[in-house]
C-alpha cells in the first residue's frame, strides 16, 4: 500500500431519498415509497470511496451545527476519513439533497447550505502535501475555492483530479491546474460542447480539454462503459452488469477508485476496470456512502467476474 495522501475539497450533504413510479406533475401530490436518509455529497462520497480502499484521505469541507452535520462527521470518521478539515458553522445548515428515484435512476435537488462557506484559510491550513499526494475536487463548493485549492496543490507538486459536477462553464485558466478530468456525458457536453456517444467523440472532447492544459480525461458513459484518453493513448473499459438497487453515488465510487488506482501506481487499464467495478457495486446497495465498496469486496467481485 503506497503512502500517498489524498486531499478532497468538497461537499457534505444529507441525502433524503424517496422512490416513486413516476415524477409528479405540476401541482400534484402523489404517493412514493422507500424513504431513506443517508450521507452524501460528492466530496464526502468520493472521500469515503478512497478511504474505504485503504488510502489516507483528508476531507476539507463544511457542515452546519445541526444533527445532520454532527452525524456526517462521526460517520465519516468511522469510515476512516480524516475529518479535522471539516468546519462546523453556526450560521448555515448542513447541505441537503432531495433525491427522487424513478426507474432505477435518480433526480437530485440540492441546497448547498454550509458547502458554500468554505474559506481559503481553511484550504491553506488543511491542504498540505507533496509530490506523492493527490488533490481532488468537484463543483459542489464555490468554484473560486476549487480554483484556489488546485493552484496551491499544484504549487506543492501534487497531482490534481477534478470531477466537474454539477457542471458549469469555467474560466480556461482553471484547466491549467487539472491533471485528470473525470466527467460523465452530460458534463462533457456542457464543458466541451460534445455529447460523447462513442470513443471517437470522447477523443474529440478530450482534445479540447488537452488544449486548455488538462493531462488526461476520463468519461463515464453509463451502459457504454468508460473511456480514458491522454495524448498518447485511449483505453476503454466495458461496464459490469449488476442488479441495480440505487445508482446514487455510483459515479463517486468510480472516481474514488480511479484515484485509489493512481495512488497505487496501478496501470490505467486495470484502474479503469476497478473503477467500473466499484461503480457497479455501488449500484447494488441503497445510499451513497454506505454503498462504497471495501477493497476486499472489490477484489472478490473482480475475481468472480474474471472467472466467468
Ligand atoms: O453524486 C451523488 C451525490 O450528489 C449525492 O450524494 C448528493 O448529495 C449530491 O451531492
Structural write-up:
The protein has 308 residues and is an alpha/beta fold. It has helices at 42-52, 67-78, 120-126, 143-155, 185-192, 199-212, 250-263, 268-282, 295-307; strands spanning 5-9, 13-19, 33-40, 56-64, 86-89, 95-102, 105-111, 134-138, 159-163, 180-184, 216-220, 226-230, 234-237. The protein contains nine helices and 13 strands. The strands form two sheets. Strands 5-4-1-8-9-10-11-12-13 form a nine-stranded mixed beta sheet, sandwiched between helices. The chain has a four-stranded mixed beta sheet with strand order 3-2-6-7. The protein is globular. Bound molecules: alpha-D-ribofuranose (RIB). Alpha-D-ribofuranose binds at residues 11, 13, 15, 40-42, 45, 97, 108, 110, 140, 248-249, 251-252, 288.
Secondary structure layout plus pairing:
Elements: E1 5-9, E2 13-19, E3 33-40, H1 42-52, E4 56-64, H2 67-78, E5 86-89, E6 95-102, E7 105-111, H3 120-126, E8 134-138, H4 143-155, E9 159-163, E10 180-184, H5 185-192, H6 199-212, E11 216-220, E12 226-230, E13 234-237, H7 250-263, H8 268-282, H9 295-307
Parallel strand pairs: 1-4, 1-8, 2-6, 4-5, 8-9, 9-10, 10-11
Antiparallel strand pairs: 2-3, 6-7, 11-12, 12-13
Helix pairs in contact: 1-7, 7-8
Bound molecules: alpha-D-ribofuranose.
Residues 11, 13, 15, 40-42, 45, 97, 108, 110, 140, 248-249, 251-252, 288 line the site of alpha-D-ribofuranose.
Amino acid at each position: 500500500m503506497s503512502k500517498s495522501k489524498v486531499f478532497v475539497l468538497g461537499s457534505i450533504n444529507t441525502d433524503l431519498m424517496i422512490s416513486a413510479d413516476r415524477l409528479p406533475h405540476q401541482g400534484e401530490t402523489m404517493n412514493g415509497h422507500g424513504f431513506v436518509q443517508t450521507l452524501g455529497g460528492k466530496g464526502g462520497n468520493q472521500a469515503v470511496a478512497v478511504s474505504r480502499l485503504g488510502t489516507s484521505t483528508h476531507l476539507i469541507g463544511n457542515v452546519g451545527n445541526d444533527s445532520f452535520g454532527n452525524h456526517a462527521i462521526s460517520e465519516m470518521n468511522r469510515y476512516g476519513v480524516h475529518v479535522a478539515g471539516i468546519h462546523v458553522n453556526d450560521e448555515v445548515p448542513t447541505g441537503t439533497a432531495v433525491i427522487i428515484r424513478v426507474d432505477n435512476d435518480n433526480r437530485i435537488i440540492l441546497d448547498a447550505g454550509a458547502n458554500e462557506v468554505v474559506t481559503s484559510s481553511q484550504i491553506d491550513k488543511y491542504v498540505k502535501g507533496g509530490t506523492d499526494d493527490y488533490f481532488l475536487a468537484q463543483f459542489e463548493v464555490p468554484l473560486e475555492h476549487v480554483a484556489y485549492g488546485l493552484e496551491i496543490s499544484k504549487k506543492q507538486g501534487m497531482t490534481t483530479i477534478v470531477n466537474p459536477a454539477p457542471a458549469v462553464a469555467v474560466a480556461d485558466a482553471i484547466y491549467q491546474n487539472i491533471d485528470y478530468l473525470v466527467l460523465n456525458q452530460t458534463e462533457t457536453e456542457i464543458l466541451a460542447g460534445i455529447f460523447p456517444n462513442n470513443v471517437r467523440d470522447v477523443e474529440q472532447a478530450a482534445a479540447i480539454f488537452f488544449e486548455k492544459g488538462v493531462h488526461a480525461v476520463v468519461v463515464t458513459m453509463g451502459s457504454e462503459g468508460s473511456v480514458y484518453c491522454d495524448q498518447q493513448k485511449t483505453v476503454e473499459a466495458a461496464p459490469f452488469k449488476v442488479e441495480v438497487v440505487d445508482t446514487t453515488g455510483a459515479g463517486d465510487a468510480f472516481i474514488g477508485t480511479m484515484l485509489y488506482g493512481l495512488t497505487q501506481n496501478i496501470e490505467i487499464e486495470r484502474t479503469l476496470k476497478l473503477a467500473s467495478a466499484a461503480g457497479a457495486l455501488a449500484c447494488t446497495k441503497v445510499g451513497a456512502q454506505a454503498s462504497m465498496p471495501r477493497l476486499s469486496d472489490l477484489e472478490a467481485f473482480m475475481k468472480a467476474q474474471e472467472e466467468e
